[in-house]
Design brief:
It comes from Leptosomus discolor. The protein has 264 residues and is of the alpha+beta class. The protein has two domains: 95 residues, no CATH class; 135 residues, Nucleoside diphosphate kinase-like domain (Alpha-Beta Plaits). It is 50% helix and 14% strand. The strands form two sheets. The protein has a four-stranded antiparallel sheet with strand order 4-5-3-6, sandwiched between helices. A hairpin with a 2-residue loop joins strand 1 and strand 2. Helix 4 packs antiparallel against helix 5. The longest helix has 17 residues. The radius of gyration is 23 Å and the shape is globular. About 14% of the residues have low confidence.
């Protein structure tokens, strides 16, 4: 009889690349150990198509909808609510199971439309807004919210990284710049919006951005590391917080339900 294996269905952004890198590091560490130790044998799906085929082979809809619901509620609350809303119906005062929209169906729908926030800092949007909007359009972003804001010091502080906050002088320079004039805040929508925007902006260090790729937005529009032109939400969770902060009245796209789905 062969030894049992563990089969896992995993979810995250850039899942294939991240998992492959993690397994490679794990294998390298284990190979450095004694030759008497048994090596961990791993096999992973390499494409979405193979992933879907293998998931249907090893799992059923019940596995995902019931046993994995708790895990999904922690990682992807909007997906969990979608599943929960279709799993149960009330009949004569008694909750009974009904056909659910399975994770397999969810996987087949393709990339999910997400929102992120781009803040164009004072002095940049007034000179380059037309070019920036054109670039956003070329990258398939949809503008679902736009407003001018004069940042209060506490709001400006919340937009700065932990590295900036470590140096009082640098922190003061950043806060002074952010509160010096009017900024333009955009809420943008497209598949994988958060990561796509971060990839376009490039590193927050202007010199590093210019050295890595002159087409990074921070390489093109930044004046200095302090006057670095842009703020972009660094994760989906932060994007939701930014949308609630800058667009409490809601968004102009009726199809965008991000804020509604994330309300507790």
């Amino acid at each position: 009889m062969s030894n049992p294996v563990l089969v896992c269905a995993l979810q995250r952004i850039n899942a294939f690349r991240v998992l492959a890198d993690a397994l490679k590091r794990l294998t390298q560490r284990r190979e450095k150990r004694s030759k008497t130790d048994s090596l961990l044998q791993t096999v992973m799906a390499l494409t979405p198509k193979v992933t879907f085929r293998q998931a249907t082979f090893f799992f059923t809809e019940v596995d995902f909808v019931t046993e994995m619901m708790a895990a999904f509620s922690n990682y992807c609350p909007s997906t969990c609510r979608l599943l929960k809303s279709t799993c149960f119906s009330s009949l004569a005062g008694e909750r009974q199971r009904c056909p659910a929209e399975s994770l397999f169906t969810y996987l087949q729908t393709g990339a999910q439309m997400l929102c992120t926030v781009l803040l164009i800092k004072p002095g940049v949007w007034s000179h380059s807004l037309a070019r920036i909007l054109q670039k956003l359009d070329l990258e398939k972003f949809i503008v679902v919210g736009m407003k001018h804001v004069n940042l209060e010091p506490d709001i400006a502080l919340g937009l700065l990284s932990s590295e900036v906050k470590q140096d009082p002088a640098v922190l003061e320079a950043h806060c002074t710049y952010l509160t010096l004039g009017t900024a333009l805040v955009l809420c943008l929508q497209r598949p994988n919006a958060v990561k796509k925007l971060i990839d376009l902006l490039g590193p927050e260090d202007t010199e590093l951005a210019q050295a890595l790729d002159p087409f990074f937005w921070r390489a093109q529009y930044d004046i200095s590391t302090v006057q670095n032109g842009f703020y972009g939400s660094k994760s989906y969770q932060i994007a939701v917080q930014d949308m609630k902060l800058f667009f409490p009245e809601g968004l102009c796209c009726t199809e965008c339900q991000t804020l509604e789905e994330e309300e507790v």
